[in-house]
Design goal:
3 helices; 35% helix
Length: 158
């Protein structure tokens, strides 16, 4: 017997599975993971590891050549600057995601045979199979298929 590998429902889906949401999330960290991950990123740089190792060696009196603070203060300053830079970038990502997720689109749904209803929905609430009405200047919110255009020649520029 040869299995059927084409056609609808090749892989049966259970009733519990849901399609992924359309919510955009480009942030890398949350409140708890920010500090550990950014410290890890800072110490993946060879120069920071070198100065940290040098600072540890400065605490050994037999081989110390200078005050340990002469190494720790610049290293701390560079690491703190790196963490602040990563924080600023992460905040920009968060507000960018929020701006996109809260943008409104027009969803078209069929009420009966002769009429349709239009409602405003947020980007993050768009589901698979929703029919959207897009106008000039609007961004295409997700993977969309063009169904109709008002242009006489049938052209659409995305």
């Amino acid at each position: 017997m040869i299995p059927k590998l084409y056609g609808p429902n090749v892989v049966p889906r259970s009733q519990d599975t849901q399609n992924p949401t359309n919510k955009r999330k480009t942030t890398r960290y949350n409140f708890i993971t920010f500090l550990p991950f950014t410290l890890f990123i800072q110490f993946t740089k060879v120069i920071n590891i070198f100065y940290a190792f040098n600072a540890v060696l400065q605490y050994i009196p037999a081989i110390s050549t200078a005050n340990p603070l002469a190494t720790i203060i610049p290293l701390s300053f560079i690491i703190i600057l790196g963490i602040i830079k990563e924080l600023v970038v992460e905040i920009k990502r968060f507000y960018g995601d929020r701006h996109v997720n809260l943008s409104e689109y027009t969803k078209v749904s069929k009420v009966n045979e002769d009429s349709v209803a239009k409602e405003k929905i947020l980007y993050q609430n768009i589901k698979v199979g929703d029919i959207l009405e897009l106008n000039d200047g609007e961004a295409v919110p997700c993977d969309c298929i063009l169904l109709k255009t008002n242009d006489r020649s049938g052209q659409v520029y995305v």
